[in-house]
Amino acid sequence: MTEVYITGLGSTTFGRHADTLPHQLGIRAARAALAEAGIDPAEIGEIFVGNFVSGVLCGQEVLAGLIADGLGLAGIPATKVEGACASGGIAFRNAVLAVASGRCRAALAVGCETMTNATTDRVTAALNCAMDNLTDGRTGLTYPGLFGLVWQAHAHAYGTSRDQVAAVSVKNKRNGLANPLASMGRMIEREDVAGSAPIADPIRLLDCCGISDGAAAVVVTASDLVTHAAAPAVRVRAAAQGSGPARISGLTGLTSFPATVTTARRAFEQAGVAPADIDVVELHDCFSIAEIVDSEDLGLMPAGHGGGYAAEGRTGPGGDVPINPSGGLLAKGHPVGATGIGQIYEVVQQLRGRHPNQVAGARLGLTHNLGGTGIACTVSILERADA
Amino acid sequence: MTEVYITGLGSTTFGRHADTLPHQLGIRAARAALAEAGIDPAEIGEIFVGNFVSGVLCGQEVLAGLIADGLGLAGIPATKVEGACASGGIAFRNAVLAVASGRCRAALAVGCETMTNATTDRVTAALNCAMDNLTDGRTGLTYPGLFGLVWQAHAHAYGTSRDQVAAVSVKNKRNGLANPLASMGRMIEREDVAGSAPIADPIRLLDCCGISDGAAAVVVTASDLVTHAAAPAVRVRAAAQGSGPARISGLTGLTSFPATVTTARRAFEQAGVAPADIDVVELHDCFSIAEIVDSEDLGLMPAGHGGGYAAEGRTGPGGDVPINPSGGLLAKGHPVGATGIGQIYEVVQQLRGRHPNQVAGARLGLTHNLGGTGIACTVSILERADA
C-alpha cells in the first residue's frame, strides 16, 4: 500500500453558524485545507464527506457533490458516507484508502453538520435515527438516557464516582478555553457540573456535549505530493473502522463498547504500536462518562481506572495520558458529521507542535470516533513524518 | 489490482413492502446473495449500503451497521454511502474497490429503500433533497419538472417526438411483464402513454418510474473465493464513479448530463472496451426521456438518435442495442438506494444466460446509475468470467 500523509487542514469554528447549510461550511473548511496543502486542487482524485442528519434537519442531501462542485472539482467521485456520529471518521478512512490503494495521489475528507437551526426536540429525534428504532428507539431511549445507564453500570461495576466523572467535564471545558475552534470552553469546578441542570440521571447539562454547527477538512496525499510548504507533514499509520451490536440488548454489558475494542485492536495492529506508545488522544466524549469508557476500551488504562485517571489529572495536557486537549466534544461541541475530521485536525496540530494546548514532544497521536449505540467506530493513528 | 468477481445475487421484489424498514429488506436480499455465493459469511470483510432517504422518510439511519449486525457480521466496517439516486451504484463501486485493493477477499454491496409508506408529497420533498435547495429547489423545481424541461430541450434540439419517447415506456413496461422482480410491468401502446395523467408537461404518468420499496445485494470476491457453486461467475471489468454540476445553471444544455459522459469515458477506459462492444445495458430511466438522454450520453448511439433507436425497436431485447430488458426503473420501480444494485443484479443474470428477457449470447454488460440533477453517476462494466 502507498504511504499516506496529511498535508492540509481546514476547520470552521464549532458552534453556531446561523442560516447555513452543512455543505457551505464544508466548502469553507475544504478551501482552507487545500490552500494549506499547497497543491493544485485538480490533484484531488476523490472526495468523501461525513454527514449524519442533513437530510432530516436541513432537507439537503448530495453534500459530497455540492462540495465537489463548490470547489470547482465537479467530475471526480464524490461520496457522502454515514455511520451516525462516526461519519467523519469513516470519511477520513475512505479518503486514506483511496490514496493508499493507489487509485489517486490526493483525496479530500470533509465532515460537516448544521444543527442549531432546529429545535432541541427535532435534534433529539434526528439523533435517534442512530438507534435501532424497531427496538431501542421504541423504549423511549435517547442518547443522554443511554449514557446515563452506562454511567450507572460503570459506577456499579467499578465504583466510579460523580466527582471522578465531573473531572472529565472540568478538564475538557477548561481545555476548550484555549482552543479558538471551541465555543463551549468554560472555567468550571467539579461542583458546577453536579449543580447544572439534570438531563437524564445521573447526567447533568455540563456532562453533555452541545448541539453545534461546524465543518472540518483534511487533504491526504501520497509522499510525492508532500510539499512541507505550510507545515510538517503527518503520516497515517492506521485508519481502522469497525461496527458493533446494533442495539443495547446485543451488548454483554454497558461498561464497554465492543466496536471500540475491535477497532482499536485493528488500528494498533495496522500501526504496529501499543496504547502506551500514544502521546496524545482525541476521543469521543459525547458525554463525560463516555470519555472514561472510551479510554478504557482503547486500552489507555485498565478497565475501571478511567475515573481515577481523570480525577488525578493524568489525562490533562500535562498528564501521562493526555486526552482531548482540544476540549473534546464537551467543549468544542459535536456537529455530528464534522467531529471525526475535527479530531484528526486537532491531533495533526499536536504532531506539528502547534496546538494551543500542546502536549510536549507529541509524535504519535490517536483519534477515536464512535457512532450510535456503539454501532460504528473508527480509530486512526497518526505520526509526525520526521519521526 | 486484484480481479473482482460477482458470485452472489439477492433481491426482493421492487414494489410495495408495507410497514417495512429499508434495512429489513436489505438483510433479506443480502442473505440470498450470501447463500448463492456459497461462501462462509465470515469471509465478508466489509459492507457498503446504498440508501438515499431512510432518515427523512423512516427516521432510521445507520443502515449499514443494522445490516451487518442482522447478518451476524457485527465487527466489520459497515458504511452507508449516499449520492442521491446513484447511491446503490456507489455502494457497488466501493465494495469492488475493497476487494480490488486487497483489503479483503469478499465484500457485500447492498442497496435498499422504502418509500411507499409515505405520502406522495413527503416523497417528493424527500427526493428534492437531491437538488441544491439554495438554488434549483427554491424555484419550485421537482424531478418530473426537470425531466419535462430536458424533454423539451431534446425535442427542440433533435426533433425528438412524443411517439419516440413513448416507445421507451412501451418497451420497458412490456419488458417488466416477464420480470418477477418488477411490479409495474404492463402491456401498453404508445397512445396509452400520451393519454395517461399529466404530471409535468410533457411528462405523463406512464413516462415516470414508480415510488417503490425494495432491496438488492451482491457479493463480490477475489478469484480464490469463486466457487461456481450456484452460477457462473461474472468479472467486474470497470466500476467507475463521477460527479457533475450541482445545479441546472451549471449545465451547458439540458440534452446531456456531463456526469454520465465523464463517468462512461472512465469506465470504458478501465475496461478497455468501446460502447459498441456492450451486449446489454441497464440504465437510469427514471423517466422515459431519461433513457434517451442516458443512452446517447453513454455513446450507445449518436446524440439525437436515442428517440429513433427506441421507436425503431433497436433497444428492445432482440434489437442491436438492448436497453433495460429488466423493464428498467419504469417497470421495476425505483426504490432509490436499491436501484443501482438492482441493475447489477439484472445484468449479471443476463451474463449468466438466465434472464427472463435474455439477450442472446450476452457476454459484456453495462449498468448506469444517475443521481440528482446529474450530480452523481456510476457506470459499471461486467463480463462473463469464461469470456
Description:
Two copies of one chain form a homodimer. Chain A has 13 helices and eleven strands. Chain A has helices spanning 22-37, 54-58, 63-70, 87-100, 120-127, 143-158, 162-177, 190-195, 258-271, 288-297, 306-311, 328-332, 336-351, and strands at 5-11, 44-50, 78-82, 106-113, 198-200, 203-204, 214-221, 234-243, 280-282, 364-371, 376-384. In chain A, the strands form two sheets. Chain A has a nine-stranded mixed sheet with strand order 3-2-4-7-1-8-11-10-9, sandwiched between helices. A two-stranded antiparallel ribbon of chain A has the order 5-6. In chain A, 65% of the residues are buried. The mean pLDDT of chain A is 97. Chains A and B meet through helix 3, strand 3, helix 4, strand 8 and helix 9 of A and helix 3, strand 3, helix 4, strand 8 and helix 9 of B. Strand 3 of chain A pairs antiparallel with strand 3 of chain B, so a sheet runs across the interface.
- Proportion in helices of chain A: 25-40%
Mean pLDDT score of chain A, rounded?
Answer: 97
Rounded Rg of chain A:
19 Å
* Unreliable stretches of chain A: none
Task: Outline the secondary-structure elements.
Two copies of one chain form a homodimer.
Chain A: E1 5-11, H1 22-37, E2 44-50, H2 54-58, H3 63-70, E3 78-82, H4 87-100, E4 106-113, H5 120-127, H6 143-158, H7 162-177, H8 190-195, E5 198-200, E6 203-204, E7 214-221, E8 234-243, H9 258-271, E9 280-282, H10 288-297, H11 306-311, H12 328-332, H13 336-351, E10 364-371, E11 376-384
Parallel strand pairs in A: 2-3, 2-4, 9-10
Antiparallel strand pairs in A: 1-7, 1-8, 4-7, 5-6, 8-11, 10-11
Helix pairs in contact in A: 1-3, 4-13, 7-10
